[in-house]
């Protein structure tokens, strides 16, 4: 299939409801080697974590995890707080802290938890929270995906960290992954309590929902908006319309068959592999309300990137076909003199979530960045 046809196919899929974006790379190995990871880990993990190397018990002298709850705008938020190995409530030491925002359609138990744990291993207090209306957090209707909510969720994580006596409030940073990266950039534009901001495989949700992937479906904008309006009208009678990229209640065999129908090295195929097979979690459904398009399509993180004056690090895979979003937002970050794009060699978008050498590379860069700025 030609590149032009691939982009056209993906534009239709994504504009019509693909959530977790990115992804390039060969998925054959992942499909055969990693399929059992999520089931094995989740069945044995008391915290429901599905990433490799996840904490299974709290041991003194090692990184600990603490499930916590707090409220944002009156809605309950479910989060995991990761504490460094030397954490001691009785000492006078305080710690720098980092918020970690998960991808669209994801949950705190997946890649956000992995990076939060790795940051805690570096000595930071880190919090990974489910977005409101999603995961284990509250909010109705379920799976509403409003940019304003996601942005406030990140400031809500900062609020929560600021209440902890062991957190140095002058040293709070933020990391956002995929869609959570776009929303983290938006939060940092106005929330100056965030002293340093980093993204991994940033995904500009509004731009893609509006224009299609790689801006290949601009002609479909009004059609999508009309569909969203119709979905909102149905909500008045209690009918919630959803869409997404994971067929509900699909078996592994059905998901693999669906992958086989799609072009290799493309977003949708890798999304099915990660969220549907290798690192599946019941709270990461890959769905959202169709009505959300009414808010998503009016959002674009690029619009106010000049408001960011904090140190900025944007990490992306060298081979990611979402790289253009990182590059576009970075170019418009004219308000900061301390900014850097870092490309992980050989990596596609979603492989920065789990491939050990890519994760190690990203964590090493994050450590340098946060150590310097927090």
UniProtKB/TrEMBL annotation:
GO terms for molecular function: hydrolase activity. Residues 73-217 form the Xaa-Pro dipeptidyl-peptidase-like domain. It comes from the Bacteria. It holds the Pfam family Peptidase_S15. This is Xaa-Pro dipeptidyl-peptidase-like domain-containing protein.
């Amino acid at each position: 299939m030609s590149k032009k046809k691939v982009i056209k196919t993906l534009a239709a899929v994504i504009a019509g409801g693909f959530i977790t974006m990115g992804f390039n790379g060969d998925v054959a190995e992942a499909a055969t080697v990693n399929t059992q990871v999520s089931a094995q880990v989740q069945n044995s993990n008391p915290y429901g974590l599905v990433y490799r190397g996840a904490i299974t018990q709290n041991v003194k002298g090692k990184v600990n995890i603490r499930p916590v709850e707090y409220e944002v705008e009156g809605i309950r938020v479910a989060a995991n707080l990761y504490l460094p190995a030397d954490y001691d409530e009785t000492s006078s030491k305080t710690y720098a802290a980092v918020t970690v925002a998960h991808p669209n359609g994801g949950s705190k138990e997946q890649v956000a938890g992995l990076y939060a744990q790795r940051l805690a291993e570096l000595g930071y207090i880190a919090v990974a929270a489910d977005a409101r209306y999603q995961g284990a957090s509250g909010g109705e209707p379920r799976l509403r995906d409003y940019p304003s909510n996601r942005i406030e969720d990140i400031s809500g994580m900062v609020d929560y960290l600021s209440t902890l006596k062991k957190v140095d409030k002058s040293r709070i940073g933020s990391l956002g992954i995929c869609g959570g990266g776009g929303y983290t950039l938006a939060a940092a534009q106005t929330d100056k309590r965030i002293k340093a901001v980093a993204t991994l495989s940033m995904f500009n949700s509004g731009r893609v929902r509006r224009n299609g992937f790689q801006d290949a479906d601009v002609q479909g904008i009004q059609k999508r908006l009309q569909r969203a309006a119709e979905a909102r009208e149905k909500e008045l009678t209690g009918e919630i319309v959803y869409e997404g990229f994971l067929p509900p209640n699909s078996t592994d065999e059905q998901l693999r068959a669906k992958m086989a129908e799609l072009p290799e090295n493309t977003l949708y195929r890798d999304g099915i592999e990660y969220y549907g097979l290798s690192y599946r979690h019941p709270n990461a459904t890959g769905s959202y309300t169709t009505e959300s398009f009414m808010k998503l399509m009016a959002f674009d993180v690029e619009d106010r990137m000049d408001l960011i004056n904090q140190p900025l690090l944007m990490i992306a895979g060298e081979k990611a076909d979402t790289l253009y979003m990182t590059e576009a937002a970075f170019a418009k970050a004219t308000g900061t003199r301390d900014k850097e794009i870092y490309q992980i060699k050989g990596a596609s978008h979603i492989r920065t979530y789990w491939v050990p050498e890519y994760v190690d590379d990203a964590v090493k860069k994050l450590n340098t960045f946060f150590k310097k700025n927090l």
